[in-house]
Amino acid sequence: MATEPTIRPSCPNFSSGPCAKRPGWTAGDAYADAATGRSHRSKLGKAKLKEAIVLTGEVLGVPDDYKIGIVPASDTGAIEMAMWCMLGAKGVDMCYWESFGKGWLTDVKNQLKLEDVREFTADYGELPDLSKTDPDRDIVFTFNGTTSGVRVPNLDWISDKRSGLTFNDATSACFAMHIDWTKVDITTYSWQKVLGGEGGHGVLILSPKAVERLESFTPKNRPLPKIFQLSKKGKLIDGIFEGATINTPSMICVEDYLDALNWAKGIGGLSALIARSNANLAAISKWVDATPWAHFLAKDPAHRSNTSVCLTLDADPAIVKKIVADLESLQVAYDIGAYRDAPPGLRIWCGATVETSDIEALLPWIEFAYAKHTAA
Fold first, then answer.
1. What is the secondary structure of 163-232 as a DSSP string?
2. What distance in Å separates the CA atoms of residue 333 and residue 59, rounded to the nearest whole number?
3. What crossing angle do the helices spanning 270-289 and 356-374 adopt, rounded to 10°?
4. What percent of the chain stands above pLDDT 70?
5. Residue 139 DSSP code
6. How many whole angstroms from its chain centre is CA 143?
């Protein structure tokens, strides 16, 4: 019988969203200065929202002429808002290799009802040939497939001379992977991923080209509810990008995001965040190399995510479910089962708020549970 490990992860939270809080986080410290009970339109509320925008730009290295806005409904709200406001001026190339990217395709075809749509797709664990996309068309892609653990290794496939816009769903990539801002026109993410913030709020980052599209293109026969509107009478609603949010944000969530941004800045900024995520991936890679029954879902090492790390096991899907349930009941690892649409396996969050020591402590427990259930 397998021997139960003696060392446990200090934090068993390995969910891929909402993700683990930063090391040392406590509600008392994080929310001490929160603008609770105050209007988001008050001087204090506006200052908090503006600070969040400014710090976002500083930590991510966003160019000064790009616009950063806080929008409703997490990353889903941000990417849908962008697609509904800006797609249709050109044909669009939809690139997807996991469930969320496929969802954006479904909305483009069935809800926006665009006709000039090309699909670039691959099975779970693979990446399509993105070099075949057309720089004179709009391109929608997911930088990191949260449900497949497959990322784009770089953005070299995007032309510097493109006339189309690039829509970059980077919800599990921002703050953990290098993004070449010259290659992306619309970037979206949510607070709940790499920085371990709370759910419900999204961020929308626009290049000057994206702003130009918003001010020059009005979709025909496409009603836009207030919550989606980014322009008015041919002009960008600039207040959204100054902290005047479309709807009421949670000031607790804003404070939580500020806490995470200040932590990120304090440990060395983006390079330190990327290094932490890379170290976590390296710990799992070393273990997979030494474990014959565990495999990365992503076939190509260059395509392997350093945040949503997806593994398959040499075991029946029912056994995998038992392993996941066992680790949760032992309070060793929460929420590490593969996404419902993905192949059976494990999905271990390795973003910057996760300590490498916790990843290293988790792996022997996976071995223990695997031995226990495959021997039964």
1. SS-EEEE-TTTTTTS---GGG-SEEEEETTSTT---SSEEEEEE-HHHHHHHHH---TT----GGG--EE
2. 30
3. 30
4. 99
5. E
6. 8
Dump strand ranges (E) for 26-106: 67-72, 92-96
* pTM exceeds cut of 0.85: yes
Terminal C-alpha separation, the chain: 10
Residue 43 corresponds to which amino acid?
K
The C-alpha R_g of the chain, in whole angstroms, comes to 21
Neighbours of 156 (CB within 10 A): 11
Question: What tokens does 198 get?
Answer: 């709370």
Q: Return phi, psi of residue 128, to 5°.
A: -70, 170
Count Cα neighbours of 224 within 13 Å in the Cβ-side half-sphere. 18
Average pLDDT, the chain: 97
Q: What is the pLDDT of residue 1?
A: 67
Q: Which amino acid is at 196?
A: G
Q: Rounded CA gap, 255 and 88, in Å?
A: 37
C-alpha span between 79 and 119 (Å, rounded): 18
pLDDT exceeds cutoff 90 at 376: no
Residue with tokens 């593969």: 338
Rounded to whole angstroms, the Cα distance separating 270 from 326 reads 35
The two structure tokens encoding residue 135: 């720089």
Contact, 125 vs 150, CB < 8 A?
yes
SS3 content of the chain, % helix, strand, coil (to 5): 35, 15, 45
CA trace torsion 172, 354, 181, 140 (10° rounding): -10
